[in-house]
């Protein structure tokens, strides 16, 4: 595990995570990496379904090893009143509550924001849901992929005229988690500076996606323009596309005026480099098909390595399309500690992504490996003031595990 000399940036902040799968837990992961004490409440017997998602090693998903590092697991049945009472007891001493249930779930357990703020006025409550806590769609079920569709992203992720495709990861959930993290940090700052009161952060999956859709709506508002799918190209900016090589693909971003000239010179097309109408983006967009064809013809006769060396020497931004193997073997990733070796509680080591962003004085760290279900139940409840006899009684009733 990493070790750092400086106190962690969020040391002393306690987070109760009452969510599962991706959006809420990714926020908890991020806060935990910077020092927050994240207590994850999971259902007894089953736990977070992410424990069993995708590839399994020694009975547990390797994804879990990343998503739940730096967390403590409390197996607590929130369907039982005694479980709800314990949750309230833990929340009463917390700084942040993260949940990504369907709207109304907390209220059904007697844990509405008003009730929780009466118990803990400084509590910051992050609520991530498909459509938000208000509005006509609030009660509809929503996953990240639905947020990507409603947020406008899926309409653009396709080759023209072909079926919209997902980007390959749960980007809607992760965007919601990152927006939620921003909200938590902002609310904690506000609490510290402006009187100690907590507040509710309402993050909808589709709104988090919509927030990164750049000029989509202004273009529709000003021109009635509906942006359409454009494959790997960047519409209205040229040249910026993926081009085939003999052994793979490269992305080339030659859309700066001076960069375009260097790119055309590097590929032997001085005629295009010197063309007056191609000296600005507007002219290049008008002839983008011709430009893309010229670049593609040049890359197709070369290997990825040859293309990268030539364009690197010409100071043209270009990048190989990486696979997991490429990332794992890349020296730049390792030089920046973006590939770390993490010990697991199942007795093996696994390489995992490093920590982003990188802070100079209080960098994030991996302090503890991802827990088994209920690993920390007794310790957390003892910290909350329960006696060994009370904990044993709760276990006999199936309230905890």
TrEMBL record:
SUPFAM superfamilies: CoA-transferase family III (CaiB/BaiF) (SSF89796). This is Formyl-CoA transferase. InterPro entries: CoA-transferase_III (IPR050509), CoA-Trfase_fam_III (IPR003673), CoA-Trfase_III_dom3_sf (IPR044855), CoA-Trfase_III_dom_1_sf (IPR023606). GO terms for molecular function: transferase activity. Keywords: Transferase. Pfam families: CoA_transf_3. The keyword Transferase applies.
